[in-house]
C-alpha cells in the first residue's frame, strides 16, 4: 500500500512536470486556402533545464502529432494538417497538448489558442472559365524561368502551402525534417487580367474561381492581374505578386 | 535504432522472473514446468515475431485453469491455489499476443503473484525482490506508455538511454516515499489478512506439561524462539522465565489455575530493561529474564506467580518491553499457602520416600534440607544426556538410581519431587537457559533448543530460591552449558542482525509502535522545552547546517541570477572539448567560436558579445536562445 501510494505520488509529479514550461507554436505556410487541408508546422520548445519532454501529443482540429522525446532546452517540430473553413483573417486553431507519461493510466492535457491570426485565401474552385484554356505543352515551346507544372524538374524548394500534395518530395522531406516540393519549369504565356465581376456564380464562388485561376496561371507562368469592383491590380508574375492577389481575394468585402 | 517493443518485452521477462522466483518452490510441479516452458517459449517466439497461442485457445485455457484451482480453494488452503492460478495465467500471457494491454496484464499478474507470495514468506529476501520488481515494473510501465502510443516506435540508443534513466527516478522516488508512507499510514493493531496466513510453524520449546521419560531423545530445534535487545548480562543470570508448573499428577507436572499470591522485595540497585521480539508460538506465555517485574507495550496479564500471559494467541511476531531487577525476591504473601507446593502424587516409590525421610531427619530447616538434597544429587553422579534414554514407567526412580542419565526435565522433576517429599515447598519453572549475544545488533538470540526446566524452592522466609538441578550433573559444563553460550561467526551474526532489523522495523511495525514513536517524540520535545540547557550540544551542528544551507542557496541564486556567466563557462568548456586545437589561455568567446568551427558557435559569440561588450545585460529571450544554441552545439560536438 505504501509503495503504491509512493508510486502514485511520483507518477503524478512526473506527469505534471512533463507538461510544464513547454511552448507550442503553430507555423503555417504562406498559402492557406479555406476548406483545403494544408500542412502546418508544430514547433514544440522545451524550456526546462533538466527534464526532457516525453510522449507529448499535440492535436489541433482533430489532427494530432506525437513528439516522443524533446530534450531539455531544445525545440522540435512536426507537420500537422490544418484546415480553415472560412477565408479572411482567421484565428489560429486551438491547440491541445496532452501526455500519458509516465504511465498509460491517465492523460493530462491543456488547451489554448495561440496568439495571432492566419490569412486564409478563398477555396480554389476549378470551373469552366474563359481562362481555363491553358496551352498544352507544344513541341518547341520555350521553358520559362518561372515555375510551373508542365516542364522538367527544375529545383527543390521549401513547401509554401499552396502546392498540391503530390508535388511534395516525401523522401527528401523525411531526410531533412522539413517539407520540400519539386519545382518544375513552366512554359511562358501572354498576360491575363481576371475580372472578378465577370466570373460566374455568387461572390464566394467568384472569389474561389479567381483564386483557382491565379494559382493555375501563376503555375503556368502567365503574368496575371486582378480587377475588383473598386480597384485593379495590373498583371505581373512572381510569387510575391501572386500572394498580393490572393490576399486581395481573401480580404475582399469581408465583414 | 532500437524498437521499443524489443525493450518492453525484455521487461516482461524480467518482471516474470522476479515475481515467480520467491514462490517457485511453493508451486505445483506442473505449474513449475509450465512457467519455465512458457518463459522460454515466449522468448523464442517473440524473437521470431510469432505467437504461440491465439487469443481463443488462450482464453479457453485460462478458464480451465480458473476452474481447476477454484475447486481447490478452501479456507484451510486459500493461498496456494490462488498463487498457482496467477502463475498459470502469467504463463499463458507469455505465449500469447503481446499487444500493449496484454503486456499490462503481464505486469499486473506479476505484481499480484509477487504480492501473494508475502502470505507465504516475509523474509528479508522479500525486500530485495520488492526493490527489483518495483524497478522493473515502474520502468516497464513507462516504456509501455511509449509502446501504447506508437507500437512501431523506434528510438535511437541515446534516446532510449534518456528515457530509461529518467524513468528509473520513478521507482527510486516511489521507494523513498514508501518509507515515509510506511511510517505514517495508520495500521490496525491486529493484521487484517492474518486469516490467509498459514498456521504458525514455530513449536513450543518449553512444554505446558513436564513428563520425564516420555521421549527417548530431545529433538534439536535451532528455530529462533525470541530475540531480546538488552545489555549483555552474566551467563549465570540468563534464565528466561516462561511458565510455572505447580501441581504433580503421577509423573506429570502441570499448571494449576489457583495460585497463591506473592509479593516482591525489590532490589533497586540494578535494573535490566529488555525489548523482547517473540516469534510466533502456540502457547500464550511471554518469556522474559527471570523474573519480570513490569511488562509494557503489549496487552498481557500477570499471574500471581509472576508468569506473564498474552491476551491473544501468539500467531504472529510480537514485541514487548520488560523490566527485571536481578536480586529481587519473590515471597509468598501467606505462609500457610506454602502447603500448596507440598502436594504429592498418589503413588511414590519407597526408595524416594527413604531418601526424603533421611533428609527430613537429618535437617530441620528448609535451607539445610535443600543443601542436603543437592548433596544427594551430586553423590548420585548423574549425567546430563539428551539422547539414548529408555522410556520407563518410573522415570524419576530409574533416573536417580539406575540409568542416572537424563535431561533437564529428569533433573528438575526428580529434585522438585524429592524436595516436596522432604518438606520443602517446590515448583518447576519452564523457560530458556542461555542465549547468544549478538554485539552487532545488541541483542540475545534464544533458540528453541535452549528450552530448559529448573526448580524454585521456598526458603525459611517463604522466599522463592532458584535451584537448577541440571547444574549438579557431573558433565554440566559440557552437556548443559556449552551448547547455550555459543559464539557464532561474525558473518552469521551480521546476517542475523539484518534479519532482526527487518523484523523489528517492518514486520512488527504496528499501530502500537506508531504511538510509541509519537509519544517518544512528544517526550523529547517536552524535555527540550523544560530544560533549554540540553539544547546546547545541538547548537553548533545546527548553526553549521544552517550556514551550509545558506551558502548553497546563495550559490544557487547567484548562478540563477547570473546566467550569463554560466552560459559563457559552458560555451568555453564546450569549445575546449570540441575544438581541433587546444584553446589558448584566457581565450575569448569569439576566438573560441572560430576554433570550434561551428556556425552555431559564431552565432552564440555574436549574441553574447553583442550584449556583454556593449555593457548591457542579456534579455530573457537572448538567454533562451543562447541556451538552445548551447544545447544544439553540445549535440553537434558530441556527434562529431
From the structure above, extract its key features.
heterodimer; A: alpha+beta; 3-stranded antiparallel β-sheet; B: 640 residues; alpha+beta; 5-stranded antiparallel β-sheet; 21 strands
Low-confidence stretches of chain A: 132-147
Task: Give the biggest beta sheet of chain B.
Answer: 6 strands, antiparallel
Strand content of chain A: 35-45%
Enumerate the strands of the largest sheet of chain B in spatial order, edge to edge or round the barrel: 10-13-8-3-19-18
Tell me the structural class of chain A: alpha+beta
**Spatial extent as radius of gyration of chain B:** 37 Å
Oligomer: heterodimer
The helix content of chain B, as a percent range, equals 40-55%
Rounded to the nearest angstrom, the distance between the terminal CA atoms of chain A is 63 Å
What this model shows, in words?
- The complex is a heterodimer of chains A (255) and B (640).
- Chain A has 4 helices and 14 strands.
- In chain A, 21% of the residues lie in helices and 37% in strands.
- Chain A has 255 residues and is an alpha+beta fold.
- The relative contact order of chain A is 0.14.
- Chain A has helices at 2-18, 170-176, 203-219, 239-251; strands at 22-27, 38-46, 53-60, 63-70, 75-82, 88-91, 95-99, 108-112, 117-120, 143-158, 180-187, 192-195, 224-227, 232-236.
- The two termini of chain B are 19 Å apart.
- Chain B contains 20 helices and 21 strands.
- By secondary structure, chain B is an alpha+beta fold.
- Residues 189-204 of chain B have low confidence and may be disordered.
- Chain B is 50% helix and 14% strand.
- The A-B interface holds A 1-3, 5-7, 9-11, 13-14, 45, 47, 51-52, 54-55, 57, 66, 68-69, 71-75, 100-104 and B 100, 104, 130, 134, 138, 141-142, 144-146, 148-150, 153, 155, 159, 162-163, 166-167, 169-171, 173-182, 185, 624, 627-628, 630-632.
Amino acid at each position: 500500500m505504501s509503495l503504491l501510494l509512493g508510486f502514485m505520488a511520483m507518477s503524478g509529479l512526473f506527469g505534471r512536470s512533463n507538461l510544464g514550461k513547454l511552448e507550442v507554436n503553430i507555423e503555417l505556410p504562406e498559402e492557406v486556402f479555406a476548406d483545403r487541408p494544408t500542412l502546418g508546422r508544430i514547433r514544440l520548445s522545451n524550456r526546462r533545464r533538466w527534464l526532457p519532454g516525453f510522449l507529448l501529443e499535440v492535436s489541433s482540429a482533430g489532427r494530432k502529432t506525437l513528439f516522443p522525446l524533446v530534450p531539455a532546452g531544445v525545440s522540435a517540430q512536426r507537420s500537422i494538417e490544418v484546415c480553415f473553413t472560412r477565408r479572411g483573417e482567421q484565428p489560429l486553431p486551438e491547440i491541445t497538448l496532452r501526455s500519458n507519461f509516465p504511465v498509460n493510466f491517465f492523460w493530462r492535457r491543456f488547451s489554448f489558442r495561440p496568439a495571432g491570426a492566419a490569412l486564409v485565401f478563398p477555396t480554389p474552385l476549378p470551373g469552366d472559365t474563359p481562362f481555363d484554356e491553358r496551352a498544352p505543352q507544344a513541341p518547341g515551346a520555350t521553358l520559362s524561368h518561372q515555375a510551373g507544372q508542365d516542364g522538367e524538374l527544375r529545383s527543390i524548394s521549401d513547401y509554401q502551402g499552396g502546392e498540391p500534395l503530390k508535388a511534395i518530395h516525401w523522401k527528401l522531406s523525411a531526410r531533412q525534417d522539413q517539407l520540400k516540393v519539386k519545382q518544375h519549369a513552366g512554359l511562358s504565356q501572354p498576360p491575363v487580367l481576371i475580372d472578378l465581376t465577370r466570373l460566374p456564380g455568387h461572390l464566394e464562388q467568384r472569389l474561389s474561381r479567381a483564386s483557382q485561376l491565379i494559382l493555375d496561371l501563376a503555375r503556368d507562368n502567365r503574368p496575371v492581374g486582378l480587377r475588383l469592383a473598386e480597384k485593379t491590380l495590373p498583371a505581373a508574375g512572381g510569387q510575391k505578386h501572386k500572394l498580393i492577389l490572393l490576399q486581395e481575394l481573401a480580404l475582399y468585402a469581408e465583414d | 535504432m532500437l524498437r521499443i517493443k524489443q525493450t518492453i518485452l525484455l521487461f516482461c521477462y524480467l518482471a516474470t522472473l522476479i515475481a515467480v522466483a520467491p514462490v517457485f518452490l511453493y508451486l505445483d510441479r506442473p505449474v513449475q514446468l509450465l512457467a519455465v516452458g512458457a518463459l522460454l517459449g515466449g522468448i523464442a517466439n517473440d524473437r521470431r515475431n510469432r505467437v504461440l497461442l491465439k487469443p481463443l485457445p488462450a482464453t479457453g485455457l485460462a478458464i480451465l485453469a480458473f476452474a481447476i484451482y477454484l475447486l481447490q480453494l478452501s479456507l484451510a488452503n486459500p493461498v496456494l491455489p490462488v498463487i498457482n492460478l496467477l502463475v498459470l495465467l502469467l504463463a499463458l500471457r507469455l505465449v500469447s499476443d503481446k499487444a500493449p494491454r496484454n503486456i499490462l496484464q503481464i505486469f499486473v499478474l506479476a505484481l499480484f503473484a509477487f504480492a501473494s507470495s508475502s502470505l507465504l514468506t516475509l523474509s528479508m529476501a522479500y525486500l530485495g525482490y520488492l526493490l527489483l520488481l518495483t524497478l522493473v515494473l515502474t520502468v516497464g510501465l513507462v516504456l509501455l506508455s511509449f509502446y501504447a502510443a506508437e507500437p512501431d516506435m523506434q528510438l535511437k540508443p541515446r534516446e532510449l538511454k534518456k528515457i530509461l534513466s529518467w524513468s528509473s527516478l520513478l521507482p527510486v522516488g516511489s521507494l523513498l516515499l514508501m518509507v515515509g508512507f510506511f511510517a505514517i499510514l495508520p495500521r490496525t493493531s491486529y493484521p487484517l489478512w492474518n486469516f490467509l496466513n498459514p498456521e504458525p510453524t514455530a513449536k513450543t520449546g518449553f512444554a505446558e506439561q513436564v513428563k520425564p521419560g516420555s521421549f527417548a531423545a530431545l529433538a534439536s530445534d535451532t528455530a529462533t524462539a525470541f530475540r531480546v535487545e538488552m545489555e549483555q548480562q552474566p551467563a549465570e543470570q540468563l534464565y528466561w522465565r516462561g511458565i510455572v508448573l505447580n501441581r504433580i499428577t503421577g509423573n506429570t507436572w502441570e499448571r494449576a489455575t489457583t495460585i497463591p499470591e506473592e509479593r516482591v522485595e525489590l532490589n533497586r540497585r540494578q535494573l535490566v530493561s529488555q525489548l523482547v521480539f517473540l516469534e510466533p508460538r502456540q502457547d500464550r506465555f511471554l518469556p522474559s529474564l527471570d523474573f519480570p517485574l513490569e511488562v509494557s507495550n503489549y496487552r498481557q496479564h500477570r499471574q500471581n506467580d509472576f508468569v506473564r500471559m498474552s491476551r491473544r494467541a501468539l500467531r504472529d511476531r510480537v514485541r514487548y518491553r520488560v523490566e527485571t531487577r536481578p536480586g529481587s525476591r519473590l515471597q509468598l504473601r501467606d505462609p500457610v499457602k506454602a502447603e500448596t507446593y507440598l502436594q504429592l502424587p498418589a503413588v511414590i516409590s519407597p526408595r524416594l520416600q527413604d531418601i526424603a525421610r533421611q533428609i527430613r531427619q537429618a535437617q530441620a530447616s528448609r535451607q539445610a534440607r535443600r543443601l542436603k538434597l543437592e548433596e544427594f544429587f551430586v553423590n548420585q553422579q548423574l549425567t546430563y544426556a539428551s539422547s539414548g534414554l529408555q522410556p520407563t514407567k518410573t522415570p524419576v526412580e530409574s533416573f536417580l538410581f539406575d540409568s542416572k542419565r537424563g535431561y533437564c526435565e529428569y533433573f528438575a522433576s526428580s529434585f522438585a519431587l524429592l524436595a516436596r517429599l522432604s518438606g520443602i515447598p517446590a515448583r518447576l519453572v519452564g523457560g530458556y537457559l542461555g542465549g547468544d549475544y549478538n554485539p552487532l545488533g545488541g541483542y540475545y538470540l534464544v533458540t528453541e533448543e535452549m528450552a530448559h526446566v529448573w526448580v524454585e524452592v521456598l526458603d525459611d522466609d517463604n522466599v522463592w530460591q532458584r535451584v537448577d538441578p541440571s547444574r549438579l550433573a557431573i558433565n554440566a559444563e559440557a552437556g548443559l552449558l556449552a551448547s547455550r553460550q555459543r559464539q557464532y561467526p561474525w558473518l552469521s551474526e551480521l546476517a542475523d542482525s539484518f534479519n532482526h532489523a527487518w523484523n523489528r522495523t517492518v514486520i512488527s511495525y504496528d499501530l502500537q509502535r506508531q504511538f510509541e514513536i509519537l509519544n517518544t517524540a512528544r517526550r523529547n520535545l517536552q524535555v527540550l522545552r523544560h530544560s533549554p540547557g540540553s539544547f546546547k550540544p545541538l547548537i553548533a551542528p545546527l548553526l553549521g547546517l544552517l550556514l551550509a544551507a545558506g551558502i548553497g542557496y546563495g550559490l544557487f541564486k547567484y548562478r540563477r541570477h547570473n546566467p550569463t556567466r554560466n552560459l559563457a563557462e559552458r560555451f568555453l568548456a564546450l569549445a575546449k572539448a570540441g575544438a581541433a586545437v587546444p584553446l589558448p589561455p584566457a581565450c575569448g568567446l569569439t576566438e573560441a567560436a572560430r576554433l570550434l568551427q561551428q556556425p552555431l558557435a559564431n552565432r552564440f559569440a555574436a549574441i553574447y558579445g553583442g550584449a556583454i561588450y556593449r555593457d548591457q545585460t542579456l534579455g530573457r529571450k537572448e538567454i533562451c536562445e543562447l541556451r538552445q544554441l548551447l544545447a544544439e552545439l553540445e549535440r553537434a560536438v558530441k556527434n562529431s
